[in-house]
Design goal:
Elements lengths: L10 H14 L3 H6 L3 H6 L3 H7 L2 H14 L3 H35 L5 H9 L13
């Protein structure tokens, strides 16, 4: 900024200073877009934001989530047990069907041809027979 000699200040110097000052000050359009006191009253404060969510709150929630999360090994174990239960149930049903076919064939209620058709339906493939060494 220029030093002004106070003794020789003219009206022209004053007008230039006003012009320079007004260039630094925001225009009326700029002032319209700025927040007013009323706008600032309705804005959230730092205290308001702290009350909403804190790091501790998020860490607690994350720890709860991790504690309830299912691990891969746990899921694998549960699926293996379920698979075993299903296979056991199917084998029991297969055993009952084979027993029923056997009794009906003995009582001559079921023809040999029908018994063979029913028996040919296999739920499980038979285990391969390995040669003894």
């Amino acid at each position: 900024m220029k030093k002004i000699n106070r003794e020789k200040t003219t009206h022209l110097d004053i007008l230039k200073a006003i012009r320079d000052f007004s260039a630094d000050v925001a225009s009326k359009e700029d002032l319209k877009s700025m927040a007013t006191k009323e706008d600032l009253k309705s804005m959230a404060t730092k205290e308001d934001l702290k009350a909403l969510v804190t790091k501790d709150f998020l860490n607690d929630e994350l720890n709860k989530f991790r504690a309830q999360m299912v691990t891969k090994s746990y899921l694998d174990d549960k699926l293996a047990v379920l698979k075993g239960d299903i296979i056991f149930s199917l084998k029991q049903g297969d055993k009952k069907t084979n027993t029923l076919v056997h009794f009906l064939t003995q009582e001559k209620s079921l023809s040999k041809q029908s018994a063979e058709k029913v028996s040919s339906i296999k739920i499980f493939k038979p285990l391969p027979k390995y040669a003894h060494y």
